[in-house]
Write a structure and sequence with these properties.
Helix content: 40-55%
Largest sheet: 5 strands, parallel
Distance between the termini: 95 Å
Bound molecules: adenosine-3'-5'-diphosphate
Number of strands: 12
Order of helices and strands: HHEHHEEHEHEEHEHHEEHHEHHEEH
Shape: globular
Length: 418
């Protein structure tokens, strides 16, 4: 009652005009704040979406990396399988390989890998070579190269990937008069680093003014310490990476090991920790090497993309001159190695060089390059394509190049061959 009476007193004492102005200003203020809050929420929404995209991209990589790191000691879960039997998989994950529980199969495999490492180290130390990626028929002793000029540290290195087509690329590059390359794999940045840069330089062929010194060691790409070491030697070095469909690459890698150790388990056995449960063994080096995005991340911490060139292993087979043109451009060389230098050898099933560096007679790569692969269960191949897909996508995004390996699932891409 008192309230009403005081209100009516107030109303009666204040002129109507002032009351109107007061109400109007209140309304305007309200409208202003409403609009501001709308704008803010609109902004937030935009910001959120924008951030969301960023976060999603980062998260994707983090997730992929975590997935991988967790699989390097454990196993990778085939996504398709997660959908079908999630419960069983949970049990499987908790029971997979523990720190001491590496099974006999893997232990044997690790021993085999160690043996390969030992033979490569012996090779780099000048002992008779017997290691994977060097083709014995093409191998040249360092001192066979011209003595003119001076030995220099390399200005360009083919750092990977194993079984990508690195030998074919190096041999084609050696045809170029402005390229001098060491024939075998020095393995300096992974196995012989303690020998020092003078040792490394001594392995290189002599070069004249204007010639580029090169080497290739495909294992650098997957060696954690290599980017930092190479950067500390030459921060402006050019890096070449030959990449190939990781599934085909894995089979090629396996084929190579099988040729030396026929007793190893089948590809299907090695590819899975537990095939029934769909547990892919990403810790198996043949599979791990093909997770290119992960390895590339380490290189990108030291080198800009402009210093890296990615060669398609598939196109190197179907269009060697086309790939060579791009490589020569990248190296700042004249396009001297062209289609005139290649011919397709039907018996070999691959392009061969009409005139290799050290000979005037045509020559194909040796028997260890372009081997027939064993037949692998199509279901395993399909699962591996699925496993690699997100990593491949990330790799395409990082490099800005689409290698179209997904098309190979249907077997309709150039260079597809299993
Ligand atoms: P496959 O033997 O599985 O077919 P790297 O030299 O890095 O070890 O790569 C070997 C791969 O190079 C071979 O794998 C083959 O597919 C590929 N390659 C590319 N061009 C080639 C060529 N001209 N001759 C032979 N192999 C070639």
């Amino acid at each position: 009652m008192a309230f009403w009476s005081s209100t009516s007193v107030f109303t009666s004492k204040v002129p109507r005009k002032i009351l109107f102005m007061f109400t109007l200003s209140l309304s305007v203020t309200y409208l202003f704040y409403s609009l501001m809050s709308c704008y803010n929420s609109f902004q937030f929404q935009e910001n959120y979406v924008y951030q969301g995209r960023l976060v999603t991209e980062e998260t994707t990589f983090v997730t992929l990396r975590e997935k991988l790191y967790s699989t390097s000691s454990q196993v990778y879960l085939d996504e398709e399988f997660v959908e079908s039997t999630a419960t069983e998989q949970t049990i499987a994950v908790s029971s997979v390989r523990n720190s001491v529980g590496i099974d006999e199969r893997t232990a044997g495999w690790v021993r085999a890998q160690a043996a390969t490492t030992r033979s490569a180290a012996a090779a780099a130390a000048g002992e008779p070579l017997e290691f994977s990626t060097t083709d014995s028929e093409l191998r040249r002793a360092v001192n066979c190269t011209s003595d003119y000029g001076v030995k220099k540290l390399p200005q360009a290195i083919i750092i990977g990937v194993k079984k990508g087509g690195t030998r074919a690329l190096l041999e084609a590059l050696r045809v170029h008069p402005d390229v001098r390359a060491v024939g075998n794999e020095p393995h300096f940045f992974d196995r012989n680093y303690e020998k020092g840069l003078d040792w490394y330089r001594e392995l290189m062929p002599s070069t004249l003014e204007g010639q580029i010194t090169m080497e290739k060691t495909p294992s650098y790409f997957v060696t954690n310490s290599a980017p930092k070491r190479i950067h500390s030697m030459a921060r402006d070095i050019k890096l070449i990476i030959v990449v190939r469909n990781p599934v085909t690459r894995a089979i090629s890698d396996y084929t190579q090991t099988l040729s030396k150790r026929p007793e190893i388990p089948t590809f299907e056995v090695l590819a899975f920790k537990n095939r029934t449960l769909g547990l892919i063994d990403a810790s198996w080096s043949a599979l791990r090497i093909g997770i290119y995005a992960l390895h590339l991340e380490s290189w990108m911490q030291y080198f800009p993309l402009s210093q890296m060139h990615f060669v398609s292993g598939e196109r190197l087979i179907v269009d060697p001159a086309g790939e060579m043109a791009k490589v020569q451009d990248f190296l700042g060389l004249k396009r001297i190695v062209t289609d005139k230098h290649f011919y397709f050898n039907k018996t070999k099933g691959f392009p061969c060089l009409k005139k290799p560096e050290d000979s005037s007679t045509p020559r194909c790569l040796g028997k260890s390059k372009g081997r027939t692969h064993p037949k692998i269960d199509p279901d395993v191949i399909r699962r591996l394509h699925k496993f690699y897909k997100p990593f491949n996508m990330m790799f395409y995004q990082m490099t800005g190049q689409n290698f179209q390996w997904e098309l190979e699932e249907d077997g309709n891409s150039p260079g597809f061959r299993d």
